[in-house]
Amino acid sequence: RPAIQAALDIGKLSLGGWQNGQFTVGVDSHDGKANVKWKGSLLAGDIQGSGDVDLKNSYPFSARLEFGNVDLLTLLHGGHEFPESWKGRAAGSLTAEGNLNGPQVLAARGEIGTLAVSGGPVEFHNDQAVRFRYERGAIELEKMHLVGKNSDLEATGTLSVARDPAIHLAVKGHADLAALTASASPADTNLA
User: DSSP letter string over 19-70?
Assistant: First the structure.
């Protein structure tokens, strides 16, 4: 059986409208299995990880990914424009399993250790890790606890990142809506 060792440097990566990424990928294969390691930047953040692929049948794989300072609005945009005053960053990790011949059956679980979102002067951050899972084009949040000035919110629900992006969250808690309304651009006024 042939053994392969390879390294690939991608200097400019554009993926689904995301621009200016770069990656280094290393592959070491032997005995019908490949170990892949990667490191780079995408979505204005840092991404690194490793995984194993069985080089037969449907090419089953498992992988671990760590990400830092990822731009959430770019990730979730799905062709929709967000007001310029909105910002969001995240850092965390995930594990994924699936088959390379059927990426639609990808399943992932992860944790967002750092989450910060803002709309103008209104800022929120998580005070505990946010656990999530991904299946069939949707991210399910188990529990997200965000705090900010005069605000304390808990949310659960799903974020669809498939063809028709949608956010379905149940939110409870209290928030300073006067500050949100004061910071709103005309595009934001439907939120208050």
Answer: EEEEEEEEEEEETTEEEEEEEEEETTEEEEEEEEEE-STT-EEEEEEEEEEE
Structure tokens at 146: 């965000």
Q: Give me the helices (H) in the chain, please.
A: 72-76, 177-183
The pLDDT tens digits for 74-119 are: 776 655 666 777 888 999 999 999 998 887 778 999 999 999 988 8
Residue 147, exposed/middle/buried by CB under 10 A (0-12, 13-18, 19+)? middle
Residue with the larger pLDDT of the pair 38 and 18: 38
Task: DSSP letter for 191, please.
Answer: G
Pairing of strands 18-30, 130-135: unpaired
- pTM of the full structure: 0.76
Residues 6+ apart with CB under 8 A from 96: 51, 61, 62, 63, 64, 65, 106, 107, 108, 134
> Residue 11 burial by CB count (10 A; 0-12/13-18/19+): exposed, middle or buried?
exposed
Structure confidence by residue, pLDDT tens digits, 35-80: 999 999 877 789 999 999 999 888 999 999 999 998 887 776 655 6
Q: What percent of the chain has pLDDT over 70?
A: 83
Which tokens sit at 100?
């390379």
| Diameter of the chain measured on Cα atoms | 67
